[in-house]
């Protein structure tokens, strides 16, 4: 069993490698990480290219949803993107918030921050900035964000209650978040759990859907809504690297247990713990 720090270092190392890959190498790999299969399987990601503000250079195919599409961003808003990667969600958010708004991307991988800043410079965006930091200790003032978005990142954070309390802290009163993430509705085989860590944590540290939603509720959020939900199917081409034929058949005989969800919730009180009110 890996410690929280070991998980963070594993994820940071893998995402550093992805940030340094060329786009062609990254696009031909599972969840953006190399070496998982001989064919192209971006099994988690949704296509972004129909959204205004989309930047192909910043799209590393690491997400599991389209949170910015559901985030209800308005002109002039301040938006914070947690786990901003190369900046794609930030640039889409910037299109919605316009030149009068502000977008802040947070990532704990220095190579991703460098890549995102380079992409922002190419686009000549002066109201999009990227900060190095962890989601469990977000490097912004309290009550700064109108909207928080995040795409397939919170599942990688070992201390999820702390992470969502930080989301609550940085949101303005009346602000909201839209977060896409991976959750479970059953138990994964141990071999799959271990394999998932090798795919840049696509489902590493994912928890049960009910537990995930309870963490959000316990952080003080209201009007929690599932905006989108889809099953994640792990192709046999990947499964065969970790399971034998009988284990694959048994795994596939179960109903889908890995899901991508996009969750919306609002901050309607000042406290991050309902009991404090």
UniProtKB/TrEMBL annotation:
GO MF term list: arsenite methyltransferase activity
A family per Pfam: Methyltransf_31
Residues spanning the membrane: none
This enzyme's EC code(s): 2.1.1.137
Keyword rRNA-binding in record: no
Domain called Methyltransferase: residue spans: 73-220
Keyword Ubl conjugation annotated: no
One of the protein's GO biological processes: methylation
Keywords annotated in UniProt: Methyltransferase, S-adenosyl-L-methionine, Transferase
Stored InterPro entries: Arsenite_MeTrfase-like (IPR026669), Methyltranfer_dom (IPR025714), SAM-dependent_MTases_sf (IPR029063)
Catalysed conversion reaction: arsenic triglutathione + 3 [thioredoxin]-dithiol + 3 S-adenosyl-L-methionine = trimethylarsine + 3 [thioredoxin]-disulfide + 3 glutathione + 3 S-adenosyl-L-homocysteine + 3 H(+); arsenic triglutathione + [thioredoxin]-dithiol + S-adenosyl-L-methionine + 2 H2O = methylarsonous acid + [thioredoxin]-disulfide + 3 glutathione + S-adenosyl-L-homocysteine + H(+); arsenic triglutathione + 2 [thioredoxin]-dithiol + 2 S-adenosyl-L-methionine + H2O = dimethylarsinous acid + 2 [thioredoxin]-disulfide + 3 glutathione + 2 S-adenosyl-L-homocysteine + 2 H(+)
Family, as annotated: Belongs to the methyltransferase superfamily. Arsenite methyltransferase family.
PANTHER family: ARSENITE METHYLTRANSFERASE
Name by which UniProt lists this protein: Arsenite methyltransferase
Organism: Kaistella antarctica
Species classification: Bacteria, Pseudomonadati, Bacteroidota, Flavobacteriia, Flavobacteriales
């Amino acid at each position: 069993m890996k410690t929280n720090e070991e998980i963070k270092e594993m994820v940071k190392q893998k995402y550093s490698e992805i940030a340094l890959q060329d786009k062609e190498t990254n696009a031909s790999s599972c969840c953006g990480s190399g070496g998982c299969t001989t064919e192209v399987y971006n099994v988690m990601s949704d296509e972004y290219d129909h959204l205004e503000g989309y930047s192909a250079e910043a799209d590393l195919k690491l997400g599991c949803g389209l949170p910015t599409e559901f985030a209800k961003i308005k002109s002039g808003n301040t938006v914070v993107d947690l786990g901003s990667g190369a900046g794609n969600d930030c640039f889409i958010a910037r299109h919605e918030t316009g030149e009068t708004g502000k977008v802040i991307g947070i990532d704990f991988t220095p190579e991703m921050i460098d890549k995102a800043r380079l992409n922002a410079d190419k686009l000549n965006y002066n109201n999009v900035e990227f900060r190095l930091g962890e989601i469990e200790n977000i490097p912004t003032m309290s009550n700064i964000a109108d909207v928080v978005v995040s795409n397939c990142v919170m599942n990688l954070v070992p201390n999820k209650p702390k992470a969502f309390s930080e989301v609550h802290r940085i949101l303005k009163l009346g602000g909201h978040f839209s977060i896409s993430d991976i959750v479970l509705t059953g138990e994964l085989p141990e071999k799959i759990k271990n394999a998932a860590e090798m795919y840049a944590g696509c489902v590493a540290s994912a928890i049960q859907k009910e537990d995930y939603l309870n963490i959000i509720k316990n952080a003080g959020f209201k009007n929690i809504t599932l905006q989108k939900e889809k099953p994640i199917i792990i192709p046999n081409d990947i499964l065969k690297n970790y399971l034998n034929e009988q284990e694959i058949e048994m795994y596939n005989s179960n109903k889908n247990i890995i899901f991508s969800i996009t969750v919306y919730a609002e901050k309607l009180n000042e406290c991050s713990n309902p009991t404090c009110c």
